[in-house]
Amino acid sequence: MIELKSKEDIDGIRTSGHLLAELFNELGEKIEAGMSTWDVDKICADFMKRHHSTGPCKGYMGYPSVSCVSVNDMVIHGIPSKHEILKDGDIVSVDICLEKNGYVSDSTHTYEIGKVSDEVHQLNIVTRKCLYLGIEAASAPNARIQDIAKAVFTHATKHGYGVVRDYCGHGVGYSIHEEPEVANYVSLMNPNPRLRPGLVIAIEPMINMGSYKVKTLPDGWGVKTIDGKPACHWEHTVAITDSGLEIMTEL
Ligand code: MF3
Ligand code: CO
Questions:
Q1: Span 114-132, pLDDT tens digits
Q2: Which residues have a beta carbon within 5 Å of ligand 2, which is an ion?
Q3: Is the distance from CB of 234 to CB of 130 less than 8 angstroms?
Q4: Would you state the pLDDT for residue 149?
Q5: Separation between Cα atoms, residue 131 and residue 140, nearest integer Å
């Protein structure tokens, strides 16, 4: 069941989302070569503590950290580790859920460490653009959920990239994962509800430079590309209100 949010709920999700956006700004200033992915997670955890908020990823189905830090061919759910050191030329997606006053927001940024290859930079630019095209599609009057998928898929495949199918965006706000699913590819098999005021969703294209296929690591969390090529991930929480779409996780 899709739970539509009240105006008061959306105010709460906005507060949470804006705080999360501030955290991404801080990460953008601090993330650099030589740091471990655990250090990245520590920045997130410290920020949350300082701002009287929590990271609901930690403990979610036994997940150990407040962020997912996914380097290069890791698509999503990379578990932060003291042994994984960021180096020049890496791309790193940091996926964070933040809870403030009971309201959850969810967002992902992909950072470039030092100088990345032109190919990898292009993947990052195109994936971010996919996110914003998905958001634009969701803003249209009478939009349906699969309009988002169509916009994302069309742009990514135009560049020859693989669109991850095994993982989706989702409703969010009271908890991390709510209905509806927000896929990044169109399927007649998937439900296609209309976007209505009160709907709050996380839109999150996961785009691979090569094949769309992925595999799960033995740790049960990490998801890598099947061909070892890099992957990219951008995500925003957005709300549909009476006056249109608003991005909750952007200042
Ligand atoms: N933030 C992720 C998402 O976009 C959820 C991560 S799963 C967790 O759906 F276990 F890490 F929380
Ligand atoms: Co999400």
A1: 999 999 999 999 999 999 9
A2: 106, 202, 204
A3: yes
A4: 98
A5: 15
pTM above 0.85, yes or no: yes
Ligand 1 center to 244 CA (angstroms):
27
77-118 pLDDT per residue, tens:
999 999 999 999 999 999 999 999 999 999 999 999 999 999
Q: Whose CA is nearest to atom 7 of ligand 1?
A: 57
- 178 Cβ below 6 A of ligand 1: no
Give the 3-state secondary structure of 136-195. Answer: HHHHCCCCEHHHHHHHHHHHHHHCCCEECCCCCEEECCCCCCEEEEECCCCCCCCCCCEC
Compute the half-sphere exposure of residue 14: CA atoms within 13 Å on the CB side of its CA. 15
Q: Whose CA is nearest to atom 2 of ligand 1?
A: 95
Distance 229 CA to ligand 1 centre (A): 22
pLDDT, residue 153, reads 98
Q: What is the mean pLDDT of residues 202-215?
A: 98
Out of 3.40.50.2000, 3.40.605.10, 3.30.365.10, 3.90.230.10, select the CATH number for domain 7-247: 3.90.230.10
Question: Tens of pLDDT along 148-197?
Answer: 999 999 999 999 999 999 999 999 999 999 999 999 999 999 999 999 99
At 164 the pLDDT is 98
Ligand 1 atom closest to 77 (CA): 11
Q: Which two tokens stand for residue 231?
A: 């992957």
Q: What are phi and psi of 237, to 5 degrees?
A: -90, 125
204 CA to centre of ligand 2 in angstroms: 6
